[in-house]
Design a protein that fits this description.
By secondary structure, this protein is mostly helical. The chain has one domain: Methane Monooxygenase Hydroxylase, Chain G, domain 1 (Up-down Bundle), CATH 1.20.58. Helix content is about 85%, strand content about 0%. The protein has 8 helices and no strands.
């Protein structure tokens, strides 16, 4: 019975890795589309977002099967419940990449290349997503903690972008709508970083049984 349970836990990890890889890919495509002004590339985001949604449903069904058909001990129960929380954040990452791609389609070929470090924000958020999932699979508390700390980097980059765009609006008010579109894109990247932080927090819970916010109270 335990060997069967372990096989299903291994399958859960593989599914999470695949979902994480899809999240990385969808953010990467959205970022490339933004920096190149390629609206055709931006259209590739939606189908991948649909696959991420399906992955969420598949993983949720697997977790419920593990809970209902097996008899998980406390450590296993934490891992399964953490996975259920994580896929919600990962699905939101996919949604926000779709939101970015949707805005790109209305930029009329203009890019964010010269308006603050939006590209750096994209790279940083991809790193956070990748490492948060890796931390879960490896049960690596140190890596999860590093992901949470790295959110400060993304937040700082967002502040740089915001300052740059405010300056742009002041000097070129005719580009106000374009600047606001870029600001919204930067905000979506910042939110993706927040979701990756949430994933990392659930990693710590899966290992220790204590959520980060409980430790802070």
């Amino acid at each position: 019975m335990r060997s069967r349970f372990d096989e299903q836990l291994a399958l859960l990890n593989r599914e999470l890795i695949e979902m994480g890889a899809l999240c990385e890919e969808v953010i990467s495509i959205a970022a490339k589309a933004l920096l190149s002004g390629d609206t055709d590339l931006a259209k590739q985001v939606k189908p991948l977002g649909d696959i991420i949604d399906q992955k969420e449903r598949t993983i949720e069904a697997l977790c419920l099967k593990l809970l209902l058909q097996q008899q998980p001990v406390a450590r296993d129960l934490r891992q399964i419940s953490a996975a259920l929380k994580m896929i919600t954040d990962m699905e939101r990452i996919g949604d926000q990449a779709e939101d970015i791609a949707e805005i790109i389609r209305y930029l009329e070929g203009r890019t964010g290349n010269d308006r603050g470090p939006i590209g750096e924000m994209a790279t940083a958020t991809i790193k956070m997503v990748t490492e948060s999932v890796d931390a879960f699979v490896q049960r690596d508390m140190e890596l999860a903690t590093e992901v949470m700390k790295y959110d400060d980097v993304v937040d700082a980059l967002f502040d740089e972008v915001k300052t740059s765009l405010i300056d742009m609006i002041a000097k070129h008010p005719e580009d106000g709508e374009y600047a606001l579109d870029l600001l919204m894109i930067a905000k979506y990247f910042e939110r993706i970083g927040d979701h990756a932080t949430n994933v990392a927090e659930w990693v710590l819970f899966s290992v220790t049984g204590v959520h980060r916010r409980e430790r802070m109270t």
